[in-house]
Structures are given as C-alpha cells and as structure tokens.
Amino acid sequence: MPSAGQHILAINAGSSSLRGDVYRFDAQGPHRELAVEAGRIGAPDAYVTTRDGGDRSSTRQHALPDHKAAVAELLRELEDAGLKAGVVGIGQRVVHGGPRYVQPSLVTAEMTAYLRDITALDLTHMPQAIAVIEATGAAYPGTPQIACFDTAFHAGLPPVARDFALPRTFAERGIRRYGFHGLSYEYVMQALSDIDARAARKRIVIAHLGNGASMAAIRDGQCIDTTMGLTPAGGLVMGTRTGDLDPGVLLALAREGMSLPELSELVNEHSGLLGISGATADMQRLVEQSESDPRAAAAVAAFCYSARKFLGALTAALGGLDTLVFTGGIGEHAASVRAAICEGMAFAGLAIDRALNDQDAPVLSTPGSTVEVRVIPTNEGLMVARQTAWYLEEKGS
C-alpha cells in the first residue's frame, strides 16, 4: 500500500477521451486529489477539464491531436499540482485481456506485444490504450504500471454462457464471450456489499447504461452471464454500436462490397442511437426531443426495449431476481429510461416508485416490490486505483 505522500495514478483511455485520477491512500481509504479529463481528442474542439480534491473545476480548449498529446497534458497538470513526483504506481484500464489476462497484471514488453496481437478484438479502444501505456511508461520509466482488465470480472463465466454455437476449435482459439465493463461491475458489487452484504450474495442484475451499455447477471458474487460478447459491440443497443445483430446482415453487406474496415466503422461508430435517430447518440438530447421528433422517440424506444428484453433474459438465467442496479451515465441520471425499462416487469415482482425514480433516489423500488431496484454511481477510476494498490501490496512491485 502506498505510504504517506505517495499516490496512485489511475488512467482510463477511451476512444476519444483520456481520464487520469490521482489517489492518496491512508487508513481511512483512498482520497482523490486530482482528476484530469481530456475530451474530443483528435477534434478541433478538444478540451481539458481539471478538478481538484474539492471538486473545484476548470475547463479550457486545448489542441489534442492524439492520445499521446493527451498524456502529455495530463502529466503537465500533475506537475503543476505538485503530484507528479509522488506517483508510485500507475493503473491502466485495459478493455480486453483476451484469454490470457484475468487479473491485474504488471505491464511488460511481453504483455504489450500480446495486447497488440489482440487489438482486432476492440479497434475502438485497444490502440489508444496501448499508446497511452507506452507514453506513460516513457514518462515514468521506473514506475510500475498495472493493467486492470474489463474482461477479468467475467473470467469465470460457465461454458454454457461463454461459448458460442460454433465448432469447438473456435473456442480453443479464444473466440468466445468475454464480457466488458468489468471494472464498473466490480466497483458496484463492492458498493452494494458495503450497503447490504446479504443482498450482494443474492441474484443480481447490474445495468451499466451509458454510451457503451451492458448488463451482467451475478449470483453468489459471481458473474454467470453478460450481454457483451467477443467484443464490446454486442448485446444492448448503444450510443453508436449496433448491439446484437443477425450475422447474416454483415454477410449480406460484405457480399454487396463493404470492406472489413467499413463494416467495423458501421457497427461501432454509425449505428445504435445515432443510427436510428440520424442525429445524435446523446440520450439526454434524444429524450428531450422524443415528443417532437419521431426518430428520436424511436431511438429511445429501441434502447429501452433492448434493455428490458435482456433484463428478462438474465432474470431467467438467474432463476429469478432479487436486486436490479442501475449505473453508468444513463442508468444513474435518465429517470424516464429507467422507468421504461422496468415497465412491464411486474410479472417478475419488480415495481418502482415514480417519485423516487424522478429524484434519482438510491432505492427506487416500492415497498411491495419483491425486487429491490437501486441506483449506485460507478467509479471505474477508483476501481483501477484499488486494484493497482492491491497489486503493489501483494506482489511487492
């Protein structure tokens, strides 16, 4: 565990964003001392937002042509805050660990080469993550970097949920369900355990709903199924991703002449809420426009229908449901979306109080509901910091 005056830097690289959180650990737990977020990387309106430990923030426009430039800006902010020299460990959120990495692990040249080999599994995030790891390593050559994997939470999926209906040789090659958002799920499970340890051992569905969206079914603290598959493009309808799609659609488009890069761009960047609405992937804007714009209403309806359908499927996989947890930007703040997802689930014993839902209350369910419905804000950066501190303490690096 870091000692007094020492800090953990937790980094989360997105497709066009980068966030770095500096945490100090003491006997009372972790304390965030600085947060730096670089957004719209590669776009003319790129920006950097800085928040101190008291949540005072400032935002400024800044040219950020790529993630390497964003890392340089992050480190400059750390320097200005007097925190750069005190960093003793760096945690890196990595979306995909493939079949090899199922727990926090020290970044090595061998790992980086392996991650580069599996980049095709997530072209939206992996190249950026590798670039950030290399840039951070160059700035902190003697400081251990710990990779924390989103897929690790789902490593124990039972074969019936893990394996696709393909010839067995494909599973042996690593073509199977991995699941994602694992750092968020692990954080929410720890938070739920702190609130109600008994509930955390029951049948739970966590709905991580944001621009990327997924659900996980958890029983006795173990994930037994999840909506995303080999890549983060599967499962629920998302901001710009299709979610589950008949594979014949892609075959038909390939026969019409679309290339693999074009198909990847279609599935990951131009579909989902953006594709249906034809205008935006922003759920807040879509909800606001849904009364006057039929395409916005159709996008919201498709998202909610997809989520409700998967909620029913995961409830069946669990053999019933005791707790439903909403998290992520949409899950935590979009009351009308939560209400639409829960609508029609009364057969499963689920009922929410409209007033509590409108208030984004911690508990949304009615007293008569046999399913407890909660809102628990997620914190992937803190989870990365915790896993990094654990690795440094357990492995002595």
Question: Which tags fit this structure?
Answer:
397 residues, alpha/beta, Nucleotidyltransferase, domain 5, 2 domains, eight-stranded mixed β-sheet, five-stranded mixed β-sheet, 15 helices
Please outline what is shown here:
By secondary structure, this protein is of the alpha/beta class. The protein has helices at residues 67-80, 109-117, 126-139, 159-162, 168-172, 182-195, 247-255, 260-269, 272-277, 283-289, 294-318, 328-333, 335-342, 354-358, 380-395, and strands spanning 7-13, 18-26, 29-39, 47-52, 57-61, 87-94, 105-106, 145-149, 203-209, 213-219, 222-226, 323-327, 372-375.
SS elements, strand count? 13
- What is the CATH architecture term of the largest domain? 2-Layer Sandwich
Structural class computed from helices and strand pairing: alpha/beta
**Main sheet characteristics:** 8 strands, mixed
- Rounded to the nearest angstrom, the radius of gyration is 21 Å
**Topology as a string of helices (H) and strands (E):** EEEEEHEEHHEHHHEEEHHHHHEHHHEH
Overall outline: globular
How far is the first residue's CA from the last residue's CA? 10 Å
The tally of helices reads 15
CATH class of the largest domain: Alpha Beta
Write down the CATH topology of the largest domain. Answer: Nucleotidyltransferase, domain 5
Number of domains: 2
In CATH terms, the superfamily of the largest domain is ATPase, nucleotide binding domain
Average predicted confidence as pLDDT? 95
| Helical residue percent band | 25-40%
Q: Which band does the percent of strand residues land in?
A: 15-25%
Contiguous runs where pLDDT drops below 50 for at least 5 residues: none
- Record the strand order, biggest sheet: 5-4-3-2-1-6-8-7
